[in-house]
Design a protein that fits this description.
105 residues, mainly alpha, 2 domains, 0% strand
Length: 105
């Protein structure tokens, strides 16, 4: 079992500490885990924003709906126009949300 029995005291300016806290807040790590990651030479990844996850789930839903429409079109040799346009509207909505996530308000 690995134990961490070494301790360091690190003095920072208020500005440095605020920067460190801001950088840690962008990840899902504790401050200690963040610093150990940096020491290991790894740049910690920022956590994925919830609105991006929700947007990706919306894209997955649109993909599923389009697949169903395509399968029905192949089996029945016709396209359900109402379902198609409903999915197109939903895809436009998801596209808008994705652009908002990417570029902000």
């Amino acid at each position: 079992m690995r134990t961490r029995d070494k301790q360091i005291i690190l003095r920072l300016t208020e500005k440095e500490y605020d920067e460190l806290k801001a950088n840690v807040a962008k990840t899902n790590l504790s401050m200690q885990a963040y610093l150990r990651t940096i020491i290991a030479g790894i740049q910690p990844k920022e956590r994925v924003p919830m609105n991006l996850i929700e947007t990706l789930q919306g894209l997955q839903k649109v993909n599923t709906q389009l697949t169903i429409i395509a399968l029905n079109a192949r089996m029945l040799n016709e396209i359900d126009a109402d379902a198609y346009w409903k999915v197109v509207k939903e895809m436009e909505s998801v596209k808008g949300k994705l652009l908002q996530v990417m570029y902000g308000d």
